[in-house]
Specification:
alpha+beta
């Protein structure tokens, strides 16, 4: 039976995990992807949408996995991805951009094959119902239960059983001008409507949070909080460049 249960995330998403999520997203989107674009010397970047996911998945695998948190591989029709499973707080997470999430909500009505987001939400959150439903979404659920259960079982191969007390959430993000602008954690019902959410914008550094601030009072409040800052990597190439500049100075003298 689907119920309007009261579900919250504030106490189930640890602070250190929030910092790690932002650090991974910023590292992938603000460092890894721009570095590839700069070094590849390509005149077009049509594959960048998929590269974002690859860099994010790699960062998550390398920097978030620990004793209580697994980063598990899965694939759907040849598309490989990762899901984060927090065993202590019993939550599973995927990472999807906000623009892609909007597409999924539209595609869900017309596609005959459910996206993996729908499979996870159906398996883990099927007993939940968002308090505010989208009028344009399903009048009648379009997918057969057998299709949903079989599709979900193929994703994780029994590593996360339905009705085992785990909840499914999506980490959504927005990028503007090469910088992480916004990030939220959304708990979704099986129709992909939002049950509850956690805003992670406060964990983004002040210089990027400025893009969304409306007044100085908000800015002062955000400045008082800890945020993730990335350190510039000092590479061998940087060292060689410094040495070259020093040599040029000596030759001019």
């Amino acid at each position: 039976m689907i119920e309007n249960k009261i579900e919250t995330l504030d106490d189930r998403v640890p602070t250190d995990l929030r910092f790690k999520i932002i650090a991974c997203l910023r590292g992938a989107l603000e460092e890894d992807l721009p570095l590839f674009q700069e070094s590849s010397h390509l005149v077009t970047h049509n594959g960048d949408r998929h590269l974002k996911g690859d860099y994010i998945n790699t960062r998550m695998q390398n920097e978030i996995a620990c004793d209580d948190i697994e980063v598990v591989a899965f694939s759907r029709y040849g598309y490989e991805s990762r899901i984060i499973i927090d065993r202590s707080n019993r939550i599973a997470y995927n990472v999807i951009s906000k623009s892609r999430m909007t597409q999924l909500m539209r595609e869900a009505i017309t596609k005959n094959v459910p996206h993996y987001t729908l499979l996870f939400a159906y398996a883990l959150n099927s007993d939940l119902k968002a308090s505010q439903k989208q009028l344009s979404m399903f009048n009648e659920y379009p997918f057969n239960p057998d299709v949903m259960e079989h599709g979900y079982n193929k994703l994780l191969g029994g590593q996360l059983q339905p009705n085992s007390g785990y909840r499914y959430c999506v980490i959504t993000y927005e990028v503007k001008s090469g910088f992480l602008l916004d990030c939220e954690i959304l708990m979704l019902d099986r129709d992909l409507d939002i049950i509850t959410k956690v805003d992670l914008a406060d964990y983004i550094t002040p210089e990027y949070a400025l893009l969304t601030q409306r007044d100085s009072e908000d800015l002062e409040q955000h400045d008082s909080q800890h945020r993730v800052k990335l350190k510039k990597k000092f590479t061998q190439e940087d060292s060689s460049l410094v040495a070259l500049k020093e040599a040029e100075k000596e030759n001019r003298a």
